[in-house]
Amino acid sequence: AHPRRRRRPIQLTFVFGSHCPWSHAVGPTIESLLDSHDRLSVEVVHGSLFAGAHVQPVAQIKWLPSTIGSVAALTGAHFGAAYAQLAERGTFVADSEQAAVGFVALRSIAPDLAVPLATAMHRAFFHDGRSLADSRTYAAIAAAHDISIARVNERLVDRTIRRIARYEARRALALGVTTYSALQLHARDGAVPIATRLRSVEQLAEALREHEHLASVRLVPND
Q1: d(C-alpha 178, C-alpha 134), whole Å
Q2: 182-205 pLDDT tens trace
Q3: pTM for this structure?
């Protein structure tokens, strides 16, 4: 008898911004999709929403409050009072480069938890009003996910981690991602964008099924 062939996974790339309200809303949907479809394999890339010339005090980002209001109304995503207090500080700056270093540091230790770690960063910022440039934020996330705090602190100052974080920002642009969040399917002929905004798990799964022929695989729920 011939051994059963292992079914190939469906490869996805999820590009997010940890300071992005839309990414905050979509993260739990991606987590639920992974939980319900075990053939999915997702690479998570941190983008650069607030980097370079776009780094400025959150209180001065004019579009952010209205976007948060829209995201909350349309998706039910929660934004805590602690975040509102943080955002009102005239000196608080959201720096995607620092946040990317934090994410890469966490992911380098627990790569299988990449999506939950991204969701935890959103929660730390948008729920708890924690700075994503503060090592104590990553210590709290690490503790909640049974990750060594000492190892995370080492990675936060590791030059290789910083180089990877800078590379990922460039890669997000190379993938054609200019708005967050973005989910892409790895197809035979390249990456295929899959819309994620305003989608439930069921809608997102259906969007993937519409493109599955490009990857020669089938998306089926867990048994």
Answers
A1: 26
A2: 898 887 777 788 877 767 888 888
A3: 0.88
Q: Please, what is the angle between helix 135-144 and helix 114-122, to 10°?
A: 130
Closest CA to 125 of 209, 197, 17: 17
In degrees, to the nearest 5, what angle opens at C-alpha 40 toward C-alphas 187 and 117? 115
- Residue range 117-141, pLDDT digits in tens: 999 999 999 999 999 999 999 999 9
Please count the other Cβ atoms lying within 10 Å of the Cβ belonging to residue 188: 9
Distance CA 199, CA 179 (A): 16
Helix spans in 110-221 (H): 114-122, 135-144, 149-156, 159-174, 201-211
Q: CA 203 → CA 33, 84, 196, 206, 209, distances in Å?
A: 10, 31, 9, 5, 10
Task: Count CB neighbours of 18 within 10 A.
Answer: 29
- Looking at the DSSP bridge assignments, the partners of residue 10 are 40
